[in-house]
Amino acid sequence: MDKDIATPLRTRTILEKYGFSFKKSLGQNFLIDTNILRKIVDAAGINGETGAIEIGPGIGALTEQLAKASKKTVAFEIDQRLLPILEDTLSPYSNVKVIHSDFLKADAAAVIREEFDPGMDLVVAANLPYYVTTPIIMKILEEKLPVRAIVVMLQKEVADRISARPGSKDYGSLSIAVQYYTEAETVMVVPKTVFVPQPNVDSAVIRLNVRSEPAVSVSNEQFFFKITRAAFAQRRKTILNNLTSQLEGGKERKEGIIAALEKAGIEPSRRGETLSLEEFARLSEALLSAFS
């Protein structure tokens, strides 16, 4: 019998053995293609010195491949019903620890300190539940967890938005937020057919190489992200109109906003999706001094 968990037969056998039913609310779609799982491990550059962090291991399909390749794998699983299944499927691997926890509420930095050696090469690799993809990625980046890369399976549409470039229809505040912290690239597009149950949308594997320094230098990160969100509030509006309507006291300070745009070398008639990260950084600095 095929030992890998990620085959249609083995997955069905495990699910039937435990009478497991999928919870739609948890966005559970299990992978049944070992080749794709190995490609995720390869894309993450995992070797015998690497620590792997997984979010949402399911029945352990990716966890198993991570365990084979890494020094140690730690997986966060929110669904208590999966714990006995994981204990069974991952029993051959002594270098795996499953933590019953909602990753979004967990003190991930403390878990990393407890479970991995200081300064260890760390990566996040996961088949993420679609409904929490963005919050999970942003938590890892905003909390500045000491990981080298994040390689995750997510909805193709979200992958397109994350890796989008200025001027494209997918480019928005999410593109900027992720690219501020990382270099983003899509590794592969994944068809619906390799999941049980099949999702309604295509998926993609994206690799985010975490930058040692943010892509641009800003004196107030919070304000920078506030400006980028405001710029995309209504995509058809100009940058001037969006900033005027979205920023507190914007209407009264319209002249100040125009002056800040000019100082940053940005035409007020441009739309947010045409601005690069560098332009947003200049604009953020100019507005910060105008508004403070």
Question: Overview of this structure, please?
Answer:
The chain has 12 helices and 9 strands. The protein is of the alpha/beta class and 292 residues long. The strands form 2 sheets. The protein has a 7-stranded mixed beta sheet, with helices on both faces. A two-stranded antiparallel sheet has the order 1-8. Strand 2, helix 3 (61-69) and strand 3 (72-77) form a beta-alpha-beta unit. Helix 6 packs parallel to helix 8 (173-181), helix 9 crosses helix 12 and helix 11 (254-263) crosses helix 12 (277-291).
Number of E-state strands:
9
Share of helix, binned: 25-40%
- Please give the alpha-carbon distance between the first and last residues: 67 Å
Gyration radius, rounded: 21 Å
Q: Report the β-strand fraction as a percent range.
A: 15-25%
Which structural class is indicated by helix and strand composition? alpha/beta
**H and E string:** HEHEHEHEHEHEHHEEEHHHH
- Give the mean pLDDT: 93
Give the number of helices. 12
Low-confidence stretches: none
Biggest sheet, strands in spatial order? 4-3-2-5-6-9-7
Give the overall silhouette.
Answer: elongated
Main sheet characteristics: 7 strands, mixed
Entry summary:
The chain has 292 residues and is of the alpha/beta class.
Features:
292 residues, alpha/beta, seven-stranded mixed beta sheet, two-stranded antiparallel ribbon, elongated
Topology:
Layout: H1 8-18, E1 30-31, H2 34-43, E2 50-55, H3 61-69, E3 72-77, H4 83-89, E4 96-100, H5 108-115, E5 121-127, H6 133-142, E6 149-155, H7 156-163, H8 173-181, E7 182-190, E8 195-196, E9 203-210, H9 221-231, H10 239-246, H11 254-263, H12 277-291
Parallel strand pairs: 2-3, 2-5, 3-4, 5-6
Antiparallel strand pairs: 1-8, 6-9, 7-9
Helix pairs in contact: 2-3, 6-8, 9-12, 11-12
